[in-house]
Write a structure and sequence with these properties.
Strand order of the largest sheet: 8-5-7-4-1-2-3-10
Structural class: alpha/beta
Mean pLDDT: 87
Number of strands: 10
Largest sheet: 8 strands, mixed
Low-confidence stretches: 253-267
Number of helices: 8
Helix content: 25-40%
Radius of gyration: 18 Å
Distance between the termini: 21 Å
Length: 267
């Protein structure tokens, strides 16, 4: 079984992709990297393929992988595609992160160790566990993100300070359990739903303090529609949980719900 895969969704990240890949692959923990690209017209996937040839010439087995999808299908489905790929290829732990350096790649090691060595099932890179650790965000966006966390905790009772965080390490068992569910959300609420399910199933969740730095290259994919999905999605998710029975993890049948998304791996 392989150790840890880092899933990075991309859409028009040509300005960041090479630097983020080189940084992750240079870390002291030998992470594999999976880029899930949604048909970026700027050549992001093509640059990843060029880097595959470079790294494949000196490293066996190949640690840089690519899935290309036809069109922009949403952040949540990109992660789900990457998570299923990770399970199929036998990884013990799976991390998710952005491609734009808003998440410091050095913190991947801390998240991984919080699970692999710390006995946790989920490790969240938290912007708010030790105050507000956000750099270069407009004040309005900081307040929206912070109060979104308060809203989620109030509605769900989930004891997570940064429920909308997108910098996370999951154990294989967590993903095997969660992916039996029909994950409904594709945008901002996707991150909340994943944490909510892990909590409801009784997995051990920890938050690791990080400093979040807004991107300096490329264009943000955030929109008002994503926040609206989160506001109403949290209510739907909580109400739906009243009519479900969350079976303890060890009793889960080994079944994954397939998603209808075309994807191919470029080598």
């Amino acid at each position: 079984m392989k150790e840890c895969l880092v899933v990075i969704p991309t859409y028009n990240e040509i300005e960041n992709i090479e630097a983020i890949i080189r940084k992750v692959l240079s870390l002291p923990v030998p992470f594999d990297v999976l880029i899930v690209d949604d048909g970026s017209p700027d050549g992001t996937a093509r640059r990843v393929m060029e880097l595959q040839r470079e790294y494949g010439a000196s490293e066996l087995p190949l640690r840089l992988h690519l899935l290309e999808r036809r069109g922009k299908l949403g952040l949540g489905t990109a992660y789900l595609t990457g998570f299923r790929w990770a399970l199929e290829h036998g990884f013990r732990y799976v991390c998710e992160m952005d491609a734009d350096f808003s998440h410091n790649p050095d913190d991947l090691v801390r998240l991984y160790k919080a699970c692999a060595n710390g006995g946790n099932d989920v490790a969240i890179g938290s912007r708010y566990i030790t105050g507000v650790n956000v750099v270069n965000w407009p004040m309005g966006r900081v307040l929206m993100s912070y109060f979104a966390g308060i809203y989620v905790r109030y509605i769900t009772s989930m004891p997570v300070m940064d429920p909308t965080a997108g910098f996370i390490c999951y154990s294989r068992e967590v993903l095997e359990t969660i992916l039996q569910n029909n994950i409904r959300f594709v945008g901002y609420a996707f991150q909340i739903e994943m944490k909510f399910l892990a909590w409801k199933y009784g997995y051990r969740i920890t938050e690791v303090p990080i400093i979040f730095t807004d991107r300096t290259k490329g264009v943000s994919k955030m929109s008002s529609g994503i926040f609206k999905e989160a506001v109403f999605g949290v209510l739907q998710m909580k109400i739906g949980s009243f009519f479900r029975h969350y079976i303890p993890p060890k009793k889960q049948p080994p079944k994954l719900i397939p998603i209808q998304i075309e994807s191919t791996e470029a080598v």
